[in-house]
Design brief:
356 residues; alpha+beta; 2 domains; four-stranded antiparallel beta sheet; three-stranded antiparallel beta sheet; 10% strand; globular
């Protein structure tokens, strides 16, 4: 999921787990919950398109990577907190609670990323296999609003924490209410929750004393929401599987993909070795074309797309090119794009002299 969702859920989880036991539990939770993403910069990720196909959701999002991140962050935070406590002649921090806070929030990142249709590879470096939950979309505004409200309800009655919540809440509310992708019912429920959030703050439903309870309540609500989508996805997945078998036989590949802005909605997609299709579209894959095989096996871009794309398609363009000679091989992941010649999940490879 997006980094804002990871940060807000991580802050709420840190507060629910270790508030009052570990120093700055909410802040630690927000930072640790994003560790699998920011740790990618330590292994060569630079934000290039190809990096997203190879390094993103790679080793830093595996169980091994998470273990290293948990150990490293616990050590850094624990040493820093111990040093600060000694400077102030305060009691030493509880390392066990720091480890629990960091561990829970780092692992929350893996769970949240798994539940969508982008997927992750938890068994790296031993297995490159991707796992997909196909339950909750990669961007879901309730994963912003619900933890944010809980953090606000648990804040001090002062303009500064209120301004911080408003500084995050107002922009995301504008984005959601103006988004064409967002369904009507989602906008209505989101607006209603904003009213409840304001009511809860003005009536002081939780406050500082009850902020752990507020955070825990929000997390239970989010877990229930995600679980409900997971259960609701089962009939959609079963229907996609049946349709794939009818169309392409028992060896067909299939999925029910999440739809951003429309919770509890899924888009079926089916594939054989030769074709990728939906309910009202179909594309040839061309994966056995010699030029495509050459690109997939003998270029870094091709190998990257081969291991990343869930529904890989290819197109060979032998026409004239703006940038000179050689044919073009276009690789696409049909989860995200079907005919575009540039953009996300599209790789264009120039094969010199008609081959590699």
């Amino acid at each position: 999921m997006d980094n804002l969702a990871h940060a807000l859920v991580g802050a709420a989880l840190g507060r629910a787990v270790a508030d009052g036991r570990a120093p700055h539990a909410a802040l630690v939770g927000a930072v640790a919950a994003n560790a699998p993403d920011w740790a990618e910069f330590l292994i060569g990720f630079r934000g290039r398109r190809l990096d997203y196909y190879t390094l993103h959701r790679g080793i830093t999002h595996s169980f091994l990577g998470a273990a290293v991140e948990i150990a490293g962050l616990t050590l850094l935070i624990g040493l820093g907190a111990t040093w600060w406590a000694r400077r102030r002649s305060a009691p030493s921090p509880a390392w066990g609670w720091i480890a629990l806070c960091v561990g829970a929030t780092v692992l929350s990142h893996l769970v949240m990323d798994w539940q969508g249709s982008y997927g992750l590879r938890p068994w790296l470096p031993w297995s490159e296999r991707w796992y997909y939950g196909d339950a909750v979309a990669i961007v879901d505004p309730f994963f912003w609003l619900v933890p944010l409200v809980a953090l606000g309800w648990g804040g001090r009655r002062h303009w500064r924490p209120l301004a911080l919540v408003g500084g995050v809440g107002v922009p995301i509310t504008v984005v959601v209410l103006r988004a064409d992708q967002a369904g009507s019912w989602l906008k209505v429920v989101f607006a209603g929750l904003c009213v409840v959030a304001a009511l809860g703050w003005t009536r002081h439903w939780f406050g500082v004393v009850g902020r752990r309870r507020a955070a825990a309540t929000a997390l239970v609500a989010l877990a229930g929401y995600a679980l409900a989508q997971g259960i609701a996805s089962l009939p959609a997945k079963a229907a996609a599987r049946r349709a794939a078998i009818v169309r392409f036989g028992p060896g067909a590949q299939w999925a029910a993909l999440t739809v951003v802005g429309r919770p509890f909605s899924w888009e079926p997609i089916y594939a054989s070795a030769d074709t990728v299709a939906g309910d009202d579209w179909a594309l040839p894959r061309h994966l056995n074309d010699p030029q495509v095989q050459d690109a997939l096996l003998h270029t870094s871009e091709g190998r990257a797309m081969l291991q990343f794309a869930r529904f890989l398609t290819a197109e060979v363009d032998t026409g004239p090119s703006e940038r000179g000679g050689g044919m073009l091989v276009l690789l696409r992941d049909a989860r995200y794009t079907r005919v575009a010649r540039a953009g996300w999940a599209v790789v264009v490879i120039r094969m010199s002299g008609g081959g590699g």
